[in-house]
Design a protein that fits this description.
The protein is an alpha+beta fold. Helices cover 51% and strands 15% of the residues. The strands form two sheets. It has a four-stranded mixed beta sheet, covered by helices on one side.
């Protein structure tokens, strides 16, 4: 990993910034207000090749990796118009199918995901399991040549616009009788597959849903990868999820910080702009440093993942997600504080981020569970759970 960003990455950032600047925060705010999705931005990003930049070229992707996909999401976020489903559709689902799917699954799903014409949701969280993937109760049993899937999922993003959902279930090991994780592609119109919206105090175009799987019958080819390697395949998707969540948070933090810095440069209450006062300048500077440090860890995680080091990427991705979430929350809070009453005005587009920035602290896994992971895997301390 070089600390000097390659020219192609600089060019990618510039191109995505140009795209994002044509939409901006006002576009997202209008979509939320009108109950719409950010379809125009999604479609244009797909046509430009940004949504599938990490997917294999032979299936319509850009042939690059998680580094490039994270750059795209970060820069859209810094422009005020992040696309949350990038975390799910190309990063998690696209990656899992590209790495472990059958040739038929790759040809069916990857070209559409890469182009943005197909979206896929991801269902892992359950009402009783929380962050503990070992307590997942959604189960799959063999029946004839196929599977029967039953269970519930909560806080699943974008199911209303997704053609299918990659569901994490569990099957029984014939040798031990223990349940093991497996991944299944469930079409949105599959009988017994129902969704209901979850009301959220979150201003986002992407809605959250509870899913009910009532004896959903699936063909044999709905299983992704090897039935006995589900855990490996699951974490191959969760590492990109954490990397992309970090990119999402870093972009949001950069957007908030940029608005605050612009305001502090020009807002004059006494004789000079408020940014001349250390009580204003220093907290903003601290936020900038924290965001830059989080970005370094995110890029480290992405480089490790692209190099095939799943174990190293897992440690770095968790650290990056933690650092980026904390940096984003503090940047948004400081931005609102810098603007005072204007920080809560719709004109500046910051108040909504007070809630949105906290999502990165609790999803897809809480910061406390990340601390548990690092304390056990990195520091070698005993497990607390």
């Amino acid at each position: 990993m070089s600390f000097l960003e390659a020219r192609e990455h600089q060019d990618l950032r510039a191109a995505v910034t140009a795209l994002g600047s044509r939409y901006g925060r006002e576009y997202v705010t209008a979509a939320v207000r009108d109950g719409k999705h950010t379809d125009e931005l999604w479609e244009e990003a797909g046509k430009l090749g940004y949504l599938g930049v990490n997917l294999p070229e032979e299936y319509g992707g850009g042939g690059r990796g998680m580094v490039e996909l994270a750059i795209v999401l970060e820069e859209l976020g810094a422009a005020g118009c992040p696309l949350l489903l990038m975390v799910v559709s190309p990063a998690i689902c696209g990656t899992v199918i590209a790495r472990f799917g059958t040739e038929e699954q790759k040809r069916r799903w990857l070209p559409g995901i890469a182009a943005g014409t197909t979206k896929m949701a991801f269902g892992i969280t359950e009402p009783e399991a929380g962050s503990n993937s070992h307590r997942i109760t959604t189960t799959a049993r063999r029946e004839g040549d196929g599977w029967v899937l039953s269970g519930r999922k909560v806080f699943i993003s974008g199911v209303d616009v997704a053609e299918a959902t990659l569901i994490v279930g569990r099957t029984e090991d014939e040798r031990t009788g223990k349940l093991k994780p497996c991944l299944f592609i469930v079409d949105r119109d599959a009988p017994g597959f129902r969704r209901s919206p979850i009301p959220m105090e979150l201003a986002s175009p992407e809605k959250q849903f509870e899913l009910t799987l009532d004896s959903v019958r699936l063909p044999s080819d709905a299983l992704v990868g090897d039935e006995d390697a589900g855990l490996l395949q699951l974490f191959a998707g969760l590492n990109p999820e954490r990397i992309m969540t970090a990119a999402f948070a870093i972009g949001m933090g950069r957007y908030a910080l940029g608005r605050a810095v612009d305001y502090a440069r020009t807002r004059t209450v006494w004789r000079e702009p408020i940014g001349a006062h250390q009580a204003v300048a220093h907290p903003l500077t601290q936020s900038h440093i924290e965001i830059e440090l989080a970005r370094l860890m995110m890029l480290k995680a992405a480089h490790l993942y692209d190099a095939g080091d799943d174990m190293g990427a897992g440690e770095a991705a968790n650290m990056a997600k933690y650092a980026a979430a904390e940096a984003a929350v503090r940047a948004v809070d400081q931005a609102v504080h810098t603007l005072g009453g204007n920080g809560l005005a719709s004109e500046y587009g910051l108040a909504q981020l007070l809630t949105a920035s906290r999502v990165a602290r609790i999803a897809p896994v809480s910061r406390e569970m990340i601390l548990n992971y690092v304390s056990h895997h990195t520091l070698g301390l005993p497990k607390s759970y």
